[in-house]
Every structure is written in C-alpha cells, then in structure tokens.
Amino acid sequence: PNDRSAGVAMAILLLRSGLSIGDVLDARSIIEPELCALAARYATDDDVNRLAQHLDAFRTAVWADDTKQAFEEHLGFHSALYDAIRVPAASLLLRPMIEVILLTSFPPQLNDSKLWEVEGHEKILEALRERDEEKLKRCIRAHFHEMQTPEYVQYRKTALSASPAVSDLMSRINEACNPSEKSAAVSEM
C-alpha cells in the first residue's frame, strides 16, 4: 500500500456510499480549516513558493478557460497546502484525502470563472504568507462557505458517484494499478 492506493480505496469507499458531493464538502469543511491552519505555523518558504506557483498556474488556467489545467492546479494547490502542515503523522493521514479533494474539485459550472474561487485561494495563500493561523482558518472556512451559495445548491445534491471528476479518478486508479503501462507509454514517447 502507498499514498495513492490508500486514497483510491478511500475514494472508492465514498463513491459506493451513496453520499452526495455536499456531504463530502461538509466533511472537508470540518477537517481542513483546523488541520491546514497548522501550515501557518510550520510551512517552509519552499512550501509557500510551491503554493504560489500552483495558484499562479491555477489563475492563468481559469482565465484561459483551460478546465483540465485549472483542475490539476487546484488539486496541486490543496495538495501543497497539506504538505505545508509539516506534522508528519497528520501529513501521512491526510495524503489519501487528495483523491477525495479530486472528487469535489470541479465547480458546478466549469465556464464560470467566479466559481473556481481563485480569490479565496489567494486569501488562503496571503494568510499563510503572514503566518497567521487564525486568519488561515477563517480563509479556509470562507472558501467552504462559498460552496454553500445558490450556484452550488444542485451540485451539492449530486451523488458523489456522479461527480464530474470520476473519470479523472478512474485515470488515477489505472495509473496506480498499472504503473508499468505508464512507464512503457512514457518511454515510447
């Protein structure tokens, strides 16, 4: 077992649970503000720079209407935030959450740049740069609060198994289960 296989197992369990996207977002809104706020205390300058790089690429992709890249950079931002916690046991326990974040990372309308919540991510990074733990908690909570707005009502009711990101998860599962196929495909290029 590795990070990816544990995350895939967790995601499959959630997909089979009958839970909605809103159910998972609600759970994340309980876990992430408290744990990710530790990044304000422990993040290195490299962690902050990595988050800034993902945010810049995320912003650029959203403005360019590049949904696939926006999705990847959004996921990268949250993954880097988890890494910045720097509490080894917490980081290890959170690693499987990346697959869960993946399932809830698309906004309800892909072509509405406002719903990608770039500004909320900018505030999260700003609080991290300031090393302000309480502000970081507030910013993360505000980020999840944005997912309670009217634009999200129907999306939140959607079964997690119908998430727009399920196909991306399946690709990641295939990569995790068949790493030699990926290596062979890369070497053929």
Distinctive features:
single chain, 189 residues, 12 helices
Structure explained in plain terms:
This protein has 189 residues and is mainly α. 72% of the residues lie in helices and 0% in strands. The protein has twelve helices and no strands. It has helices at residues 3-16, 21-36, 39-42, 45-63, 67-83, 88-94, 97-103, 118-129, 133-145, 153-157, 166-177, 179-188. The protein starts with a helix and ends with a helix. The model is unreliable at 182-189 (pLDDT under 50).
Query: What percent of residues are in strands?
Result: under 5%
Tell me, briefly, the overall form.
globular
Radius of gyration: 16 Å
What's the tally of helices? 12
Q: Kindly name the structural category.
A: mainly alpha
**Would you identify the regions where 5 or more consecutive residues have pLDDT less than 50?**
182-189
Share of helix, binned: over 70%
- Beginning-to-end CA distance, first to last residue: 29 Å
Number of strands: 0
Largest sheet: none
Mean pLDDT: 88
Task: Provide a compact summary of the structure.
The chain has 189 residues and is an all-alpha fold. The protein has helices at 3-16, 21-36, 39-42, 45-63, 67-83, 88-94, 97-103, 118-129, 133-145, 153-157, 166-177, 179-188.
Topology of this protein?
Elements (H helix, E strand, L loop, with lengths): L2 H14 L4 H16 L2 H4 L2 H19 L3 H17 L4 H7 L2 H7 L14 H12 L3 H13 L7 H5 L8 H12 L1 H10 L1
